[in-house]
C-alpha cells in the first residue's frame, strides 16, 4: 500500500465480533476486484466481546486494516472522529460494521467527489419503493419523526440525515469531524449542520439499506437522546459555538 492511499474506509465497531469478519472479507474482496489502493480503519469503540482481538489478528495478516481502539465506549460519532484523525486517504468514506449498503455505492460516491462534490451522502428517500428493507414499524416511525424534527429545527434541506453511508474529500472531513461536539448517534445531524454552515457542496446518491440484525441500538432510548442533540445544536449555533470554515477545507 502506498504512503497515501486513494481511499480510507472508516468503520466504527462496538461489540461487532460476529458481524465484522464477513464485512471485512467482503470489503477486502471488493477492493481486490476493483484494484483500488485503500486502507480500512476500524475503530473498536470500547467493545467487550472480542472485537479488539479480532481486529489485531486481521491487521497482522493484512496491512490494509488499521485498528484503532477506545478504552471505553464513547459513541459512534466519537469513534468516527478517532478514525478520521488517523485516515491517510485522499478520499474518505464511512459505513457501519454490518455492511448495510452495497459496496458498489463506493464507486458512485467517488465519481461525485471527483466531479467536485465535497461531501456525498447516501439518501434512502431517493429510492423508489422500500429503501429500508427489514425496518420494523417502530423504527420507521422514529426515523420519520426524527427527520421531521431536524428539518423544523435546523432547516438542513436533507430528508435522510441518518444514513450510515457518507463520503468526503479528506481535507474537508478532517476539520468537519474535529468541529463535532456530539459523540453519539446525533453526530450526523451536527456534521451536516456544520457542512451547510460552511457552504460545502453536498451531493446525494440513492442507496438501499439492508438491515442485518444484531444491532445494539435501542430505538426509543437513542431517539430521545438524538432529539436532545438537535436542540443542543440549535442552542450552540445561536451562541456562535461553531467555527467558520477553515481555509484548508
Tell me the layout of helices and strands.
Blueprint: E1 7-13, H1 20-34, E2 38-45, H2 51-61, E3 65-70, H3 76-86, E4 91-94, H4 105-114, E5 119-123, E6 132-133, H5 137-154, E7 166-169, H6 170-178, H7 187-197, E8 202-206, E9 209-210, H8 219-238
Parallel strand pairs: 1-2, 1-4, 2-3, 5-8, 6-9
Antiparallel strand pairs: 4-7, 5-7
Can you describe this structure?
- The chain is α/β, with parallel strands linked by helices and 249 residues long.
- The chain has a domain at 7-134 and 161-184 and 200-213: Spore Coat Polysaccharide Biosynthesis Protein SpsA, Chain A.
- Helix content is 42%, strand content 17%.
- It contains 8 helices and 9 strands.
- It has helices at 20-34, 51-61, 76-86, 105-114, 137-154, 170-178, 187-197, 219-238, and strands at 7-13, 38-45, 65-70, 91-94, 119-123, 132-133, 166-169, 202-206, 209-210.
- The strands form 2 sheets. A 7-stranded mixed sheet has the order 3-2-1-4-7-5-8, with helices on both faces. The chain has a two-stranded parallel sheet with strand order 6-9.
- Strand 2 (38-45), helix 2 and strand 3 (65-70) form a beta-alpha-beta unit.
- Helix 3 crosses helix 6 and helix 5 (137-154) runs parallel beside helix 8 (219-238).
- It is globular.
- It starts with 6 loop residues before the first strand and ends in an 11-residue tail after the last helix.
- The model has no long low-confidence stretch (mean pLDDT 92).
Amino acid at each position: 500500500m502506498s504512503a497515501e492511499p486513494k481511499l480510507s474506509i472508516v468503520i466504527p465497531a462496538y461489540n461487532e465480533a460476529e458481524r465484522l469478519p464477513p464485512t471485512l472479507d467482503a470489503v477486502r474482496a471488493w477492493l481486490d476486484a476493483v484494484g483500488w489502493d485503500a486502507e480500512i480503519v476500524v475503530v473498536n469503540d470500547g467493545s467487550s466481546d472480542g472485537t479488539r482481538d479480532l481486529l489485531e489478528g486481521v491487521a497482522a495478516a493484512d496491512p490494509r486494516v488499521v485498528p484503532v481502539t477506545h478504552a471505553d465506549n464513547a459513541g459512534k460519532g466519537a469513534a468516527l472522529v478517532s478514525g478520521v484523525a488517523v485516515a491517510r486517504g485522499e478520499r474518505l468514506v464511512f459505513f457501519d460494521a454490518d455492511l448495510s449498503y452495497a459496496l458498489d455505492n463506493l464507486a458512485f460516491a467517488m465519481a461525485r467527489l471527483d466531479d467536485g462534490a465535497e461531501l456525498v451522502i447516501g439518501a434512502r428517500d431517493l429510492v423508489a419503493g422500500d429503501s429500508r428493507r427489514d425496518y420494523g414499524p417502530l423504527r420507521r416511525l422514529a426515523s420519520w419523526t426524527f427527520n421531521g424534527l431536524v428539518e423544523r429545527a435546523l432547516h438542513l434541506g436533507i430528508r435522510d440525515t441518518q444514513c450510515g453511508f457518507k463520503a468526503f474529500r479528506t481535507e474537508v472531513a478532517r476539520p468537519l469531524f474535529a468541529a463535532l461536539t456530539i459523540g453519539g448517534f446525533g453526530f450526523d445531524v451536527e456534521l451536516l449542520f456544520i457542512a451547510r454552515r460552511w457552504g460545502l457542496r453536498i451531493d446525494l446518491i440513492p442507496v438501499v439499506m439492508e438491515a442485518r440484525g444484531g444491532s445494539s441500538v435501542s430505538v426509543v432510548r437513542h431517539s430521545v437522546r438524538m432529539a436532545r442533540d438537535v436542540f443542543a445544536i440549535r442552542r450552540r449555533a445561536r451562541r456562535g459555538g461553531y467555527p467558520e470554515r477553515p481555509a484548508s477545507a
